[in-house]
Predict the 3D structure of the following.
Amino acid sequence: MIMRRNGKAMRDFILSLFFINLFALSALTAHSAQKQDDDDLRRVWNKKFVEERQKNANAQPARPSGVKPAKSSARMRTREVEENQPNSVPAAAAAASSPAERLDGELIGVTFWQLADATAKAGRDKPRIMVQQPNGRVSRLVAERVTADTLFKTSQRVRIGVEVPRGKESYLYVIDREVYADGTMSVPYLIFPSQTTPPGGNVATSGKLIYVPAQGDPIPYFNIHRDRSDQVSELLTIIVSPVPLDVRPGPPNAPTELDPALVAQWERQWGGRTERRELRGGAGAKWTAKEKEAGEGKRKLLQNDPLPQTVYFVAGKRGDQTLVNVPLRIAP
């Protein structure tokens, strides 16, 4: 009897181990499948940014009659870009991996930059953000990419880069609201554009990188702080519109207060089902000279330049007003 009991216990133990391992394997397989689906979708979205940027590279000035066109270096580099750009895939593979309806909407690329004082370790070849302080001292700041899930500490300096893969010019607006622990929010304020934004500074088009605050603002970053002890985040509402909105920008230190009912109406009209994907391996990358020059209007981003860290997809009619809410989380 004792041997039989021990044998049964051993069988039960083995069966238990089998089902535990089977469950763990199933969970791992499901996680891997979800991760692969996320990566595939991000590649398709990346392809949209690359295609729009390539139009800028392929745009050439008119040639005198009889002059043979030179081979496009951008086209010659297409395979190199597809092979080396993070999360990118060849065009044929991307088209085959996702149905057309997955792009039945608009994409908005957002990159959060965390700023810190420049040090020797940051590398002398990295571009700096030069800020004139009230005391006359010049701060040299380096920018590092972070994901949209980052918990920012109070007093941390943050900058936002926005890219919209639209061939036609649109207008970019950013609204800010404080979010509290009970779910309530402050009144909304228009923080971009402001009165110091240069003319055309909020005009978005393919390959143009728009920084918020603007590159030419006296203080080109935001300081994270709490106005109330129960504040948990800032909610940034990003709007891309084919026509200018009827709003009047204020100075950076006194942004225009907006009617909460109006903002709620915009959310209902221009928002939609939203998905988000991060650029795998992008967090921690330093600000590049190309991104700096693109923000200064000296050039546009091309297909082998860094892609946005976070891409938001908003379902809706392409070319219409598009709205996405992006939380900027504050650490406890």
In short: The CA atoms of residues 51 and 303 lie 7 Å apart.
